[in-house]
Amino acid sequence: MSDKKRKSFSDINKKYSFLDEGVEGLKNRNVTRDEEARRRTMSENSEKNNRQGRNQQTHRNPRSNNNRQDFRDHTIKMDAQAIEKERRRVEMKARREREQKRKKRLTISVFLGIVIVVIVAFAFKTWLDKGNAKTNPIVATEPAEKKQNKETDVETLKGFVVTTKATKCFEDSNDSSTELKEILAGEYLEKYGTVDEFTKIKYQGTEGYVHTVDITEISKEDELKVIDGILIVNNKYTLPEEYEAGKNSEANTNFDIMVKAAKTDDVNIKVASDYRSYELQKNNSYDSEGISAYGEYLSDGSQVPAGASEHQTGLAFDVYGEYDNKYSKNFADSKEYKWLKENAHKYGFIIRYPEGKEEITGRKAEPWHLRYVGTKAAKEIHANNQTLEEYLGLVKNTGNEDENTNNELKENNNSNNDEKNNSSADNNSSNNNDSNSLDNNSNEENNNRSSNKKEDSDNSKNNENNN
């Protein structure tokens, strides 16, 4: 009887699943048997699938599966020492995490602080600059003025220098700039000014900068004389034998432009001679009779000494026309000369030795001789009908005076002559009076002498008669 009850109760429990489902089973009492059967079938299928999957994993990695089974099937027992060790591990891990977070926050704070300081400093500097610009506007314009002076100070030819040793020529005034060329010792350079420890020079058509300590000034004042940016060569200011300028690139370029412009006006200008070295001037310019091969003479007709010719500068050109009137005075009557006289100054050239200015230039007239001085100076010389000596104010230095001083000297000479004439007239009158008085005295003396002679003669006669 008791067995039946137990059996019946177990059947009832299995049927309604009071023990297995618990409260959920009570909630699902209203579920139909078909729904329950369907769910049971699905759960069985899922368990079957899970079982198959575990079996496959077991075949693939049996060791890991065994470890998992061991860990799942066995409970880990820890003593007090292991528990304390685990607690310390967890605590250290938490402490490291807190330290990392603190460092991260500190880094971000420092970065933000630096950014804020930079912004504040920049704003403060800007504010100070504005305040200084308002109170002292000259300070704001000084750098621009200095820069302008720096640029203008190296544009005009100041003179010539000589390299004391081999030096490098740079594109700009610093050693890190491009190296243009190396210049040997003893070379003459055109000097245009200094910038810090460098000097701007021009050498054989190349402009650049060299170290100032590698160059020295010309020792002789009457050699390579530069006035107002122009190299002057005449009987007083000469060129050294070692100076070999070669052809000047700027002068040649402007000469070619001038020749092309003349052709458009049906005028053909040809070059008879341009650059001539000191050696050529010394040995090949004159024959045994003193006749110049280049028509170059001093004002008295003598030879031009070596070093006193402008052709050694590379800035002079001897020209002739289409009728081969080379070094001929007839060139002054040619259309080429007339065109040059009216237009050469537009390209920076002047007729260096014009007729009628021999006493100023110290040379005989050379209508074929052109000298490059730049367009600014050439236009002023042409407008005022001057020579280069007159333009540079060297007339007095060469022993001549300009027209004003000549007029003053003439007036002074005239007044001096008048004074001399007046004094001479006075002297003549006084001299005449003195001479007249002297004549009278001499006449009286002569009369007295004659009377005395008569008395003596009468006395002598009387004495004879008495005897």
From TrEMBL:
Record keywords: Carboxypeptidase, Hydrolase, Protease
Protease listed as a keyword: yes
Official protein name in the record: D-alanyl-D-alanine carboxypeptidase family protein
The species this protein was found in: Miniphocaeibacter halophilus
